[in-house]
Amino acid sequence: KNQVEQSPQSLIILEGKNCTLQCNYTVSPFSNLRWYKQDTGRGPVSLTIMTFSENTKSNGRYTATLDADTKQSSLHITASQLSDSASYICVVSAGTGRRALTFGSGTRLQVQP
Amino acid sequence: DARVTQTPRHKVTEMGQEVTMRCQPILGHNTVFWYRQTMMQGLELLAYFRNRAPLDDSGMPKDRFSAEMPDATLATLKIQPSEPRDSAVYFCASGLVLTREATEAFFGQGTRLTVV
Question: Is the CB of B109 less than 8 angstroms away from the CB of A43?
Answer without folding.
Answer: yes
